[in-house]
Write a structure and sequence with these properties.
Blueprint (H helix, E strand, L loop, with lengths): L3 E2 L6 E2 L3 E3 L9 H13 L4 E3 L15 H13 L6 E6 L12 H15 L4 E6 L8 H13 L3 E7 L3 H13 L5 E5 L8 H6 L1 H6 L3 E2 L35 H17 L3 H11 L7 E2 L4 H12 L4 H10 L4
Parallel strand pairs: 3-4, 3-10, 4-5, 5-6, 6-7, 7-8, 8-9
Antiparallel strand pairs: 1-2
Helix pairs in contact: 2-3, 3-4, 8-9, 8-11, 9-10
Pfam family, one: Aldo_ket_red
Organism: Pedobacter panaciterrae
Protein name: Aldo/keto reductase
């Protein structure tokens, strides 16, 4: 595996990020430790989480994922070997949301405490906050970088217009610039990113760390009928992919995976890694067996013909 630079930062990551949304949800602390050990033992170093993970689980309040990651780094004493990304802005309670300076200062302290660290490598705006001026948000990040609590910043779920405006304001007022973008992007969901964001990413040297890289598991090939949706707690999200286009993509994945003696998940991730504007797709697993797909994807080099087969099967125009 070769490391890749995140935007114009000094952060170098291996080509897959682990998505921490499963911690405290489909993986308890013991299982999470096992998976994180396996992930880093395989040579990976990039973990992405968020303060709000996993508040959607009954009985959770948010912060569970950060707490697990923090406990793991503390017990393994490996903070200096990890590139750690988390996010701020998603609703955590009635007065705990958004990107105001006051809230960011409060939220970062909560994240640092849960993560058991004194700095965050990549701090990301999780969702846009139209009620807070962009300049105020970037000024808050500037202060945190000055204090050494944050190294670099990134954005997720911003519109193309707001992302562009943020980059322009950063330049105009000499404030920190977003170095990364975290959009939804995979073999099935291509149009939104390719049509609206990819040019912005390339023009501004941003690093893309896309989520739903396996389309909630659909691109693993294990969901091929409505009956299959019961195989996982996350299966419900796959229903929209069970259509003619989805089956065409699965057929292409089946064909290409045979050529490389690899699972469909590895091929779907390798296709993303091969795209010039993608730095590191975000993927999650809930077992050590599934980690093999990530390891294979990171070292797989698809040839031009096979990339073309996948491009054609998943074409959106």
């Amino acid at each position: 595996m070769k490391k890749r630079k995140l935007g114009n930062s000094d952060l170098f990551v291996y080509p897959i990020a682990f998505g921490g949304n499963v911690f405290g949800w489909t993986a308890d602390e013991k299982k999470s430790f096992e998976i994180l050990d396996g992930f880093t033992d395989a040579g990976f170093n990039f973990i992405d989480t968020a303060d709000v993970y996993s508040a959607w689980v009954p009985g959770n309040t948010g912060g569970e994922s950060e707490t697990i990651v923090g406990n793991w780094m503390s017990q393994r004493n490996n903070r200096d070997k990890i590139i750690l990304a988390t996010k701020v802005g998603a609703p955590m309670g009635p007065d705990k949301k958004g990107l105001s300076k006051k809230y960011i200062f409060q939220a970062v302290e909560d994240s640092l405490r849960r993560l058991k660290t004194d700095y965050i490598d990549l701090y990301q705006s999780h969702y846009d906050d139209p009620d807070t001026p962009i300049q105020e948000t970037l000024e808050a990040y500037h202060q945190l970088i000055k204090e050494g609590k944050v190294r670099w910043i990134g954005a997720s779920n911003l519109t193309p217009e707001r992302l562009t405006e943020s980059l322009e304001i950063a330049k105009k007022f000499n404030l920190p610039k977003y170095q990364t973008l975290q959009p939804e992007y995979n073999l099935y969901q291509r149009e939104g990113y390719e049509k609206n964001f990819e040019q912005i990413v390339q023009d501004n040297d941003l690093g893309t760390i896309n989520y739903y890289a396996l389309a909630s598991g659909f691109l693993t090939g294990k969901y091929r009928s409505v009956e299959d949706l019961n195989k996982s707690q996350r299966g419900g999200a796959v229903k929209n992919y069970l259509n003619e286009r989805g089956f065409k993509i699965l057929k292409a994945l089946d064909d290409v995976s045979e050529q490389y003696s690899a699972d469909q998940a590895s091929i779907a991730l390798a296709w993303l890694i091969a795209r010039p504007s993608i730095t590191a797709p975000i993927a999650s697993v809930t077992s050590l067996d599934q980690l093999e797909d990530l390891k294979k994807a990171a070292t797989l080099k698809l040839n031009v013909e096979d990339i073309a087969i996948l491009d054609e099967a998943s074409a959106w125009e």
